[in-house]
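Input record, target 12 of the design panel.
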């Protein structure tokens, strides 16, 4: 398999993995009071848009690799805040002041699912950035 094909497959795998993880994470929060909050409602909407963008990037990877890479990076940026909200509620509440209905028990919460989500999003963003920076090898010209 050529180098370009390997990069496409790696990017497609990252998009698929992120789409599955983010969709599963966001769907568990749908229909709860979390979706109606002044701050948390838009976070959940960002996750919904991000999961759709991961699917779009997955399809685009095989036709327009660089556009798909940019879409992947954008989707990662849209999905990351909700993981940060649950992993680091103290700094998040310090940045976004307001009245929260649930009291904060700790500034940082170690939840394996949230950490896995953050790691997968960072890997997908790195793959997307690498794909944006990588230029395809020029095809050799055939002599007549």
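The sequence produced for target 12 reads:
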């Amino acid at each position: 398999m050529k180098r370009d094909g390997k990069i496409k497959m790696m990017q497609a795998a990252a998009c698929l993995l992120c789409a599955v993880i983010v969709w599963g994470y966001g769907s568990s929060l749908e229909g709860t009071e979390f979706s109606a909050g002044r701050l948390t409602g838009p976070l959940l909407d960002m996750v919904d848009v991000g999961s759709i963008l991961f699917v779009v990037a997955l399809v685009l990877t095989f036709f327009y690799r660089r556009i798909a890479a940019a879409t992947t990076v954008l989707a990662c940026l849209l999905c990351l805040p909700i993981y940060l909200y649950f992993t680091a509620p103290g700094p998040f509440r310090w940045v976004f002041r307001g009245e929260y209905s649930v009291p904060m028990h700790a500034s940082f919460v170690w939840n394996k699912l949230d950490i896995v989500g953050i790691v997968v999003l960072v890997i997908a963003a790195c793959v997307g950035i690498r794909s944006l920076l990588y230029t395809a090898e020029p095809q050799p010209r055939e002599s007549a």
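The chain has five helices and no strands.
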